[in-house]
Design brief:
The protein has 13 helices and 14 strands. It is of the alpha/beta class. It folds into 2 domains: 5-128, Enolase-like, N-terminal domain (Enolase-like, domain 1), CATH 3.30.390.10; 144-430, Enolase-like C-terminal domain (TIM Barrel, Alpha-Beta Barrel), CATH 3.20.20.120. Helix 1 (66-80) crosses helix 3 (109-126) and helix 2 (88-99) runs antiparallel to helix 3. Bound molecules: 2-phosphoglycolic acid (PGA) and zinc ion (ZN).
Length: 431
């Protein structure tokens, strides 16, 4: 008897910022059922699939998701009922065809993704498998985390321009040890901020500190100090990643670094980033330039990609055709993978596959607006992407994923291998 979809039900829930998003429950023909929750970004890329919002100013300032839920409960549920639940690719293709638009704006990428993930999880329940096994592309492995310690930009009241200052704890024997080191460094960063007399803006959107620092450079210096103060070797055990999120301070062809007192051209921005990879243990730069500055991205890649991970988030928006164009044009060497930027699980897998075939790395990522759903921990493990970015070590929507990774390591016995960033992303030695 084929396993088929019996029913779907969606409803509006709140994300970690108190904004509406969706939960979808899928029930299968054998009675197995499961729920998935959909995340939501704030510093979104222009080329993302459309998250459908109600636009009714009387509810949640127009951000309600009742229309998206309604689409699941009527049109999508009718078409999905009786379909093979085991064939994720066919189901997702059906959802895409039903929507009928290039950007999923008719039914909403939030509606489609909720269905796609809920069905996958229900199948894992039906098979009595951990989710990562159901999703597996062949060689599952636990990812190395890229963990937010300091926030700026749109996630922390634009105190400084760069959005994320993260650590990559790669030089440890297990995921659990890497996480323990992170908690120590997070604490040390908090003490350093207080000791320096900076105003601590509480917890930022992704659970890191959002201090009123004087500049982006000051944030990099503070993070390096926090690693050293915690007793770890910068570069050998713990390295730094930044998410510049440059599209969000790009205006009229220039990068406006107000906190640094300068406004830079694309080339000057590349030079600044290059300098900071020499002065600080920075091994990964995400969205270092504006999302449509293709020439700039080529220059950035030429100058830095042999030693540094150059990550496209808003630049690629988890979109196969943008990634293909980037590969052909020699832009970046890594793709950030956010399921709701594209809207279905199969398209997400497609991007991971394309990256792998072309020697690009992949980092599975959460959004700044998250839920208690731990799906991403299993997804990152299943794809063998090797890296995950899900925010800091506070706020339970972040911990849901970290705690699931601890479970996969301890209870399911999955192996973790720290990544050797000392050889650079393309295997060449860092100078
Ligand atoms: P977002 O931010 O979820 O607000 O888009 C995350 C990121 O830019 O990586
Ligand atoms: Zn980003």
């Amino acid at each position: 008897m084929p396993l088929t979809i019996y029913s779907l039900h969606a409803w509006e829930i709140l994300d970690s910022r108190g904004r509406p998003t969706l939960a979808v429950e899928a029930t299968l023909s054998d009675g197995a059922s499961a729920t998935a929750q959909v995340p939501s970004g704030a510093s979104t890329g222009t080329h993302e699939a459309v998250e459908l919002r109600d636009g009714d100013p009387k509810r949640y300032g127009g951000k309600g998701t009742l229309r998206a839920a309604g689409h699941v409960n009527t049109e999508i549920a009718r078409v999905a009922a009786g379909r093979n639940a085991d064939d994720q690719a066919a189901l997702d293709a059906e959802l895409i065809a039903l929507d009928g638009t290039a950007d999923k704006s008719r039914l909403g990428a939030n509606a489609l993704l909720g269905v796609s993930c809920a069905v996958a999880r229900a199948v894992s329940h039906s098979r009595r498998q951990p989710l990562y096994q159901t999703l597996s592309l062949g060689s599952p492995r636990l990812p190395v985390p890229m963990i937010n310690i300091l926030s700026g930009g749109l996630h922390a009241g634009a105190n400084i321009e760069f959005q994320d200052f993260l650590i990559i704890p790669h030089g440890f024997d297990s995921f659990a040890e890497a996480l323990e080191a992170t908690v120590k460094i997070h604490g040390a960063a908090g003490s350093l901020i207080r000791r320096a007399g900076h105003v601590l803006n509480g917890v930022a959107d992704e659970g890191g500190w959002g201090p009123l620092l004087s500049s982006n450079q000051a944030a990099l210096a503070l993070l390096t100090d926090a690693i050293v103060e915690s007793g770890f070797q910068p570069g050998a055990q713990v390295s730094i990643a930044i998410d510049v999120a440059a599209s969000h301070f790009y205006e009229d062809g220039r990068y406006r670094l107000t906190s640094e007192g300068r406004s830079l051209t694309s080339e000057e921005m590349v030079d600044l980033l290059a300098r900071w990879t020499r002065e600080f243990p920075v091994v990964s730069i995400e969205d270092g330039l504006f999302e449509d500055d293709w020439d700039g991205w080529r220059v950035l890649t030429e100058k830095l990609a042999d030693k540094t991970q150059i990550v496209g988030d808003d630049f690629f928006t988890t979109n196969e055709s943008r990634l293909r164009r980037g590969i052909e044009a020699g832009c970046a060497n890594t793709v950030l993978v956010k399921m709701n930027q594209i809207g279905t699980l199969s398209e997400t897998f497609g991007v991971c596959r394309l990256a792998k075939e072309n020697g690009y790395a992949a980092v599975v990522s959460a959004r700044s607006g998250e839920t208690e759903d731990s799906f991403l921990a299993d997804l990152a493990t299943a794809t063998g992407a090797g890296q995950i970015k899900i925010g800091s070590i506070t706020r339970s929507e972040r911990l849901a994923k970290y705690n699931r990774l601890l479970e996969l390591e301890s209870r399911h016995g999955l192996a973790w291998q720290g990544r050797d960033f000392s050889t650079g992303i393309l295997g060449r030695r860092r100078g």
